[in-house]
Design goal:
globular
Length: about 290
């Protein structure tokens, strides 16, 4: 375990904090407490808390004042100045018992979003890609899809199924990001008690993945070796994000199931920061016609 110490970036206790997004233009960190329909943003000491109509689980940025929100209703744009949402498109409108889960912008201007049954029924989840105004299914028969992230230099995409505790990878077209071929197993946590959750890829192609019930973020090399781990000091980290100049790793966490559990330096559900952790890659924008 690396000796790098986590600090509390924001001490708001999120029931399930998720979807951290560093906006590289406005220098703002966004994240959601999705069961409570809350969008948080923080820039320096300035904090904004916005109640949302829908249960938003994942975020991306479109331009300096527009975010993309993935929710149980589909994809919406969100104006950070007016706090107004506008419907963009549906995802699985024919499955009313499914909701969004993980999501991330890809380096080609697309956005990938996973879905799952609200009761986490097996094989009811999937992963979709929004690209050039079209939603296409990428993977099906998943239960709790997470860990969506991209290694552009290797033309790879990754995802995890938290239920099976496994991470997969597959090739994508280097020019468009379109999936090529079938998924293959990348890393297996099923012999442990941890579940892989959200993930990002750094400038060297290493995956940084939050481990629910693992109290850490693992760094996994492109050849599937754990080369570093960061202790979160709270059992349920949910998702990492690179921010600032790329050397800060922000990590959301969950209070869920830990409401009465004691803690030391890191309250359960707080949003954490590891300073000078690694050289990361900041999130690309999603390309949407008209924005």
């Amino acid at each position: 375990m690396n000796t790098l110490t986590a600090t509390v970036f924001d001490n708001t206790l999120n029931f399930v904090g998720e979807g951290p997004l560093w906006h590289p233009i406005t220098q703002t960190l966004y994240w959601v407490d999705f069961p409570n329909h809350i969008l948080h943003s923080k820039k320096g000491d300035h904090k904004v808390v916005q109640r949302l109509d829908d249960m938003v689980t994942a975020l991306a940025w479109v331009n300096n004042e527009t975010l993309l929100l993935a929710s149980d209703k589909g994809l919406n744009t969100y104006n950070t100045s007016t706090h107004k949402q506008a419907f963009l498109c549906s995802v699985e409108a024919d499955k009313p018992y499914n909701r969004s889960n993980d999501g991330r912008a890809d380096p080609w201007g697309g956005f990938w979003i996973s879905t799952m049954h609200t009761d986490a029924k097996e094989n009811e989840g999937a992963i979709y890609r929004y690209y050039n105004g079209v939603v296409t299914q990428v993977v099906s028969n998943l239960t709790i899809p997470n860990g969506i992230c991209f290694d552009k230099s290797r033309a790879r995409a990754y995802y995890a199924d938290s239920k099976t505790q496994k991470i997969y990878r597959f090739d994508v077209d280097s020019l468009t990001g379109s999936p090529i071929g079938e998924s293959v197993l990348f890393f297996d946590y099923s012999s442990s008690a941890v579940s892989p959750d959200g993930a990002v890829i750094d400038s060297e192609g290493n995956m940084w993945i939050a481990l629910w019930d693992g109290a850490r973020v693992d760094c996994i090399s492109p050849d599937a070796k754990v080369i570093q781990s960061l202790a979160t000091q709270t059992p349920r980290p949910t998702c990492p994000a690179f921010g600032d100049d790329g050397t800060t790793l922000y990590v959301t966490s969950a209070q869920y199931g830990l409401e009465d559990a004691p803690f030391d330096a890191i309250p359960h559900g707080a949003t954490l920061a590891f300073k000078n952790a690694v050289k990361g890659v900041l999130e690309p924008c999603v390309k949407i016609d008209g924005f």
